[in-house]
């Protein structure tokens, strides 16, 4: 099973297929694998030592980043995620660590989690998707209900005190209008985080 895989000049880490959302646009609906990996559907969730073993297979001087992402929400396995990140910080401190997340870690783990990322993660990339909580609920179908959007914003605003780069992402035109992008920019500005508008990929 694919625990780590290459995307451009980064190594991506796939530790779970669990996710509390069912986003209408989720890549997982498009097929078994992305970015040249055969399948990101895991036979089972890898143990920490398997994740570490997989991380150790890479010739790290050739890569610019490690990204916890995969076919699921990495904070579903927060302990494993943080332990693997700590391993990278100890053994490959020159490699920046990013977590791509839906930002629902607090709801998933039933506690405030932003502080746990301190000194382990360099960048949190959080899917904002929209400026509208109702639209978010319809688009992402989070199992935690309509309060998920505000919980995600709260997580982002707290994370900025512990993680050097907190970035929220939306997809650009034609998925979002310039007006919506501006409203998302204002939300990020209020939260004290950065907005990144990703190019639309058909
Ligand atoms: S949060 Fe990510 S992994 Fe989960 S359903 Fe949405 S796009 Fe897919």
Task: Summarize this structure as a short list of keywords or feature phrases.
202 residues, alpha/beta, TIM Barrel, seven-stranded mixed sheet, 7 strands, 30% helix, binds iron/sulfur cluster
Written account of the structure:
It is built from six helices and seven strands. β3, α2 and β4 form a beta-alpha-beta unit. The longest helix has 14 residues, at 78-91. It has helices at 48-55, 78-91, 105-109, 133-140, 148-159, 178-191, and strands at 4-7, 10-13, 65-68, 97-101, 123-127, 165-171, 194-198. It has a seven-stranded mixed sheet. The protein is globular. The chain is α/β, with parallel strands linked by helices and 202 residues long. It has one domain: Aldolase class I (TIM Barrel), CATH 3.20.20. The protein is 30% helix and 17% strand. The model has no long low-confidence stretch (mean pLDDT 94). α1 packs parallel to α2. The structure holds iron/sulfur cluster. Iron/sulfur cluster (SF4) binds next to loops.
Order of helices and strands: EEHEHEHEHHEHE
Low-confidence stretches: none
The largest beta-sheet arranges its strands as 1-2-3-4-5-6-7
* Count of discrete domains: 1
Gap between N and C termini, in Å? 27 Å
The bound ligands are: iron/sulfur cluster
CATH homologous superfamily assignment: Aldolase class I
What average pLDDT do the residues reach? 94
Find the CATH topology: TIM Barrel
User: What portion of the residues fall into strands of 2 or more residues?
Assistant: 15-25%
* Rg over alpha carbons: 16 Å
Amount of helix: 25-40%
Write the layout of secondary structure elements.
Blueprint: E1 4-7, E2 10-13, H1 48-55, E3 65-68, H2 78-91, E4 97-101, H3 105-109, E5 123-127, H4 133-140, H5 148-159, E6 165-171, H6 178-191, E7 194-198
Parallel strand pairs: 2-3, 3-4, 4-5, 5-6, 6-7
Antiparallel strand pairs: 1-2
Helix pairs in contact: 1-2
């Amino acid at each position: 099973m694919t625990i780590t895989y290459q995307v451009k000049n980064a190594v991506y880490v796939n530790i779970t297929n669990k996710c509390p959302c069912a986003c209408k646009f989720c890549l997982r609906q498009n097929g078994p694998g992305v970015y040249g990996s055969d399948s990101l559907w895991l036979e089972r969730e890898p143990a920490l030592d398997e994740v570490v073993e997989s991380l150790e297979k890479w010739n790290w001087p050739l890569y610019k980043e490690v990204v916890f992402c995969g076919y699921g929400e990495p904070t579903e396995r927060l302990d494993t995620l943080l332990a693997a990140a700590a391993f990278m910080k100890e053994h490959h401190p020159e490699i920046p660590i990013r977590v791509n997340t839906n930002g629902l870690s607090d709801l998933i783990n039933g506690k405030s989690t932003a502080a746990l990322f301190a000194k382990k993660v360099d960048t949190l990339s959080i899917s904002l998707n929209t400026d509208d909580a109702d639209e978010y609920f319809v688009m992402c179908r989070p199992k935690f209900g309509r309060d998920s959007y505000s919980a995600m914003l709260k997580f982002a605003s707290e994370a900025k005190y512990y993680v050097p780069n907190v970035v929220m992402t939306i997809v650009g035109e034609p998925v979002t209008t310039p007006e919506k992008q501006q409203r998302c920019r204002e939300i990020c500005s209020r939260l004290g985080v950065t907005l990144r508008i990703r190019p639309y990929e058909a």
